[in-house]
Specification:
about 350 residues; Thrombin, subunit H; 3 domains; 24 strands
């Protein structure tokens, strides 16, 4: 039950983190809020809305959303906005301020009870999109992954293992009581092919049963998310703690989309991507723009893309090779960082995002 309690504790902490995400201290937000020309005068909150989606309706820079209620006493807790609430914009001293008109609470009467019902508040970001990756996926160093002990098999000759199965594992180092069974999902490399880490997926928990067998351990699988298989690794250590974050735009950071959690070729809103910056260079809560750059063009009588066969660029610096500008196609928010890479969720995309796209200031 220890692993389950840790999971529940972790999920609760991440939920708290998500709904508190947009409480940015005003001292950290210096820019004045500018409404979009297309911003609606009023907006009725819908069931599947998020605060980030609504911010996109009103602002070009949605991370400045807290400024909209800076002088408004109606919205003491801005994350407690419910479906059915009507949001209105009014101007105060030349600056936009948000106010909310709430529906009256609904009463259901019966002979013996009075029930008061109200919808759940909307999330800051799409929890359903992020939740599967909070505790189930992480990136570890390649050398650390390679020395993890692996599952061998069991006494009945099984090749798949679930809760309560006893499995033999190759031993390594000093045994611990608690392990996580993890599976390699992909090798994460940068744009030059250098390995940044191994992406692993949480399969189950495992408890040490016997550690005195020469060169082997006997472990008991428990709390399975998926069937464990021969070759899956035993990873010691508790689930990572939630990372505190305050929304803020990237400044000088520049990186690339180098992968995603499902090995898809094209990505869109709410997909989780991997970028090639680690926790030394970027923090959870950083908002980044996503930019796509087309192939270089060889100008001439018959213009060609540099990637086309028989395309030869000019040996002279005469401007005949045209480098296309990188155009913004979306935004993402970094929500989990590792040593050399990070996870981000795409919050806005006007075109499909792909590996190799640039991420930089929004």
């Amino acid at each position: 039950m220890t692993g389950r309690r840790q999971n529940i504790k972790g999920v609760r902490a991440w939920r708290h983190w998500l709904v508190a995400l947009l409480f940015v201290p005003l001292s950290m937000v210096q820019a004045a809020v500018t409404l979009k020309e297309t911003a609606p005068k009023t907006y009725t909150v819908k069931k599947d809305d998020t605060l980030w989606d609504i911010a996109n309706l009103f602002l070009d820079k949605p991370w400045l959303w807290p400024q909209l209620w800076r002088t408004n006493t109606q919205i003491v807790n801005p994350h407690l906005i419910y479906p059915g609430d009507v949001l209105r914009i009014r101007m105060v001293n030349g600056q936009p301020v948000l106010e909310v008109a709430r529906e009256k609470k609904r009463l259901t009467l019966s002979p013996s009870t009075v029930k008061q019902t109200k919808p759940s508040p909307i999330n800051t970001l799409p929890w359903s999109a992020i939740a599967p990756y909070v505790n189930q996926n992480e990136i570890i160093a390649e050398d650390k992954y390679e020395i993890l002990p692996h599952l061998l098999g069991n006494s009945s000759g099984g090749i798949r293992f679930i809760t309560d199965d006893l499995v033999l594992s190759r031993s390594y180092g000093r045994p611990q009581d608690q392990y996580r069974v993890v599976r390699k999902q992909s090798t994460i490399t940068d744009m030059n092919g250098a390995v940044l880490g191994i992406q692993i997926h949480h399969i189950a928990n495992a408890n040490m049963v016997e550690s005195k067998i020469p060169t082997q351990w006997l472990v008991k699988v428990n709390e399975s998310n998926l069937e464990a298989r021969r070759g899956d690794r035993l990873f010691a250590g508790e689930l990572p703690e939630p990372q505190d974050m305050i929304l803020q735009p990237a400044t000088t950071q520049r990186a690339h989309v180098i992968g995603n959690l499902h090995q898809h070729q094209l990505l869109g809103k709410n997909d989780v991507v991997v970028i090639d910056l680690g926790h030394a260079d970027i923090q959870p809560g950083t908002v980044m723009g996503i930019y796509a750059q087309g192939p270089a063009i060889i100008d001439g009588e018959n213009p060609r893309y540099a990637s086309e066969a028989n395309a030869v660029s000019s040996p002279f610096k005469d401007g005949s090779t045209i480098i296309q500008p990188a155009l913004k196609v979306g935004e993402l928010i970094i929500f989990k960082t590792f040593e050399k890479a990070s996870y981000g969720i795409i919050t806005r995309a006007r075109e499909m995002v792909k590996n190799g796209d640039i991420v930089a200031n929004p």
